[in-house]
Amino acid sequence: MVPGKTYRPEDYVEILWRRKWIGLIPFIAIAVGTVVVTQFIPNRYRSSAQVLVVPPQVPKNYVEPTVTSGLNERLQSMTQQILSRTRLERIISDFDLYPNERKTQIMEDVIAEMRKYISVQIGRATRNDPSYFTVSFESENPRIAMQVTDRLASSFISENLQDRTVQADQTSQFLLAQLDDARRRLAEHEKKLEDFRRAYAGQLPTEVQSNLSVMQSTQVQLQALAESISHDQDRQLTLDKLIADMLSISAQAQAAAAARDSQSAPAPVTAAEQLAQARAALKQMLLRLKPEHPDVVHAQRTIKELEQKADAEALNGPVGVDAPTSLLLPEGDAKRLSDMQAERESLGRRIVVSREQEARLQAVLANYQKRVEAAPTREAQQIELMRDYETLQETYKTLLAKSQESNMAANLERRQIGEQFRVIEPARLPERPISPDRLRLNGLGALGGLCLGLALIGLLEYRDTSVRTDDDVTLSLALPVLAVIPVMISEGDRVKRRRVRLMATAASLVVTMSALAVAIWKSNILLQWWGR
After folding, report:
1. What local confidence, expressed as pLDDT, does residue 322 receive?
2. CA distance 343 to 121
């Protein structure tokens, strides 16, 4: 560049025109080279299959599915399984993929390369429409791309069905094992409750009311027995009084008979006769003395002792005064005395039986009283047992319901009426490659060649300090220009320049035609290979 010179647009045009070959040659070379290189880049084809997620045919209100994870989680899990080395290695072997790479690389690298060209994308049409996902695969062979995509879509469908069935079966088996364990624990606890009820029968809280009823009934019976015993004792006292009176009369008669017959031996005096005589003597005393008199008190004490002896004689055997009294009393009075003595003996026996029955009822009452008193303790123990029992029972009912639901869900999956994957757009043979984008690459190559040419022109012009016009001389040397001598070009120089231009043009044409020929040849080979 000339120092101090101000360049105008026409100066830049002149520079470009003057150095046009320096800019055109890199432009043409890089553009043509890009065309040639892009022709050798292999075409890659992508085939896609769209899989629809069909919801269960049975509403969730009737059968709750066991698989509750979202589509993203399940697809991620299935993708990891399908893209595993074992399955991809089988696909590579079945379709003979990457033959050259398998000769030079290990299988792990080949599988990693294949994973780069497998894509799984989830989509949703609208808010109410079911979800879907797209499986795609890229390959240099369009038919291989279609076949591998179809295999991958089928793998997703079969894997989904197998996973849902296995998961439903595992859930059902787990719930069944938990149900068996809950049933066993419930049976053991029921056995404990049964043993508790048997061990403390009659002391349970539920039996308190019946125990109180029995106690009330027993108390009523005791009261009735007490009244009966009191009545019998009163009747017995009355009979004793009557018998004593009649025996007193008989004693007086016997005394009179004894006075008349002093030679006969005196008859033994019974306790009843002594009681009658004592009572008769007490009556005579009460006519003369007050009840607080010591003789009256001593006579009353003697009468009580004689009453006990008379009761004992009545229990041990019949009174032996019938013969004498029957001789000394009128026939009607003797029979009446005999009846009263028999009645008195019957009353004595009935009193003894009533006393025994009273003692038995007292024991029964005490037993039921102990049961009622032990009820609060048994209630606390039963509450503790029932608390665990109710928990186990509720757990068993819950597990039973869940187990039945899980069995229905497993049957739903086995019959393939649950959630399914269905191919709605199968893999098709791709008609055009997705890469490389040759038009874009060629454009970028041409743009790069043009930028390189302009950069070379700018560099050469920056380093060129030669002057070409009188203005350049004036600016660079600050001297006036006296004359300008034009460049004299000989005929030989013109021919030489023309020859160079022709050779450059021919070379450019040759390179361009070669690139076009290579492109056409490459296209024909691809068409023939695709047609196969």
Report:
1. 41
2. 114
The reply to whether 409 falls in a domain is no
Identify whether residues 126 and 25 lie together within a single domain: no
For residue 228 the two structure tokens come to: 């009966």
The boundaries of the domain holding residue 98 are: 45-165+415-425
Same domain, 245 and 344: yes
- Specify the pLDDT at position 64: 61
Taking 60 as the threshold, does the pLDDT of residue 121 lie above it? yes
The 3 state secondary structure assigned to 3-71 is CCCCCCHHHHHHHHHHCHHHHHHHHHHHHHHHHHHHHHCCCEEEEEEEEEEECCCCCCCCCCCCCCCCH
Q: Which of 273, 380, 283, 381 is nearest to 324 (CA)?
A: 273
Q: Are residues 116 and 232 in the same domain?
A: no
Between CA 186 and CA 42 the distance in angstroms is 72
pLDDT in tens, 343-402: 878 888 888 888 888 889 889 888 888 888 888 888 888 788 787 788 888 888 888 888
SS3 per residue for 386-437: HHHHHHHHHHHHHHHHHHHHHHHHHHHHHCCCCCEEEEEECCCCCCCCCECC
Rounded average pLDDT over 246-254: 69
Q: Dig out the tokens for 523 from the structure.
A: 């296209």
Mean pLDDT estimate for the chain: 76
Pick the closest to residue 94 from 148, 138, 142, 48 (CA basis). 148
Residues 216 and 324 in one domain: yes
For residue 85, the domain's CATH number is: 3.30.70.1130
